[in-house]
């Protein structure tokens, strides 16, 4: 086999596909790309036995067809350092000796038999898939707003991913670890179908990084996995098995008190008093009055305390409540409006955090469970 391809084009493809390959693989051949040449198209495929990501690159002066495997790390590093020139690949079909040349450079390496590359089954012949089209921006915003709230408890595998609740008019992205919950509703595009799945973190991250700039993503879903397709990339990933918690039941609908506060001011204050929290607890106490939020933290081991006041607007009776500083920082960093709205009820009920104004065709709600405190 022979073909020519621009080094920059091939680098972009291999760099993207390398994101699916694990740093350590039980099966050695999974450290490689599977490269397939057919009809003037070079397909670069990577896999971790569950996820499969493929990139398609047009090549010139192609001779022959076939497939071979090439060490992924070495190829990506070589292409990254190579000047933007057309490079020649010459593969000896008898022993898979590979020559990579460009003006001023010549590299020799050995490939592996492409037929030995393990590809998991990506289609279920017994199930009719659900097909719809989704803008990349819609998926990226949903993933960006919910990824931080994904659980990490192996005993609750259903919470170790983002729940995609797909409805005819909208997609709802939900993530929770039982202490915090995010619900992001996007009506940017109407899928026109009803489906649901729990997307693992790795798959969601690949979708965000590789498909985020796509105007349209063709998505095909079964009960077990999804296949995403755009002109240059195809991605197949399995879902997490199990039932996701009934998220709407845990979001309070009638928290009577409303706190409006400058997001950046509260964020900075939590960061500062957070320096003085007990690292094993992470507690920051809040006393909320009509015109200010008082923050207090202390570390009994170091005999240190911190206090801050942040101006606010609050329409309820005075409230003392405790929140985890690390969790609160995650919420404040994810919200983007200058002011945020917090709906509160009592020290034992969760606070509901929202932007002061939702983006067009979207709604963002974040829930944070309080921590038990005795007094301020």
What is this entry, summarized?
By secondary structure, this protein is an alpha+beta fold. 18% of the residues lie in helices and 43% in strands.
Structural commentary:
With 376 residues, the chain is α+β, with helices and mostly antiparallel strands. The chain has seven helices and 26 strands. A twelve-stranded antiparallel beta sheet has the order 15-12-13-14-26-25-24-19-22-21-20-23. A hairpin with a 2-residue loop joins strand 2 and strand 3. It is elongated and about 80 Å long. The N and C termini lie far apart (74 Å). 33% of the residues are buried.
List the helices and strands and how they pair.
Elements (H helix, E strand, L loop, with lengths): L1 E5 H11 L14 E7 L2 E7 L4 E7 L1 E4 L2 E6 H10 L4 E6 L5 E6 L2 E6 L1 E2 L16 E5 L1 H11 L14 E7 L2 E7 L3 E7 L8 E6 H11 L5 E5 L3 E6 L2 E6 L8 H4 L6 E6 H11 L9 E6 L3 E8 L4 E11 L4 E6 H10 L4 E6 L6 E5 L6 E7 L8
Antiparallel strand pairs: 1-5, 1-7, 2-3, 2-6, 3-4, 4-18, 6-10, 7-8, 8-9, 11-16, 12-13, 12-15, 13-14, 14-26, 16-17, 17-18, 19-22, 19-24, 20-21, 20-23, 21-22, 24-25, 25-26
Helix pairs in contact: 1-2, 3-4, 6-7
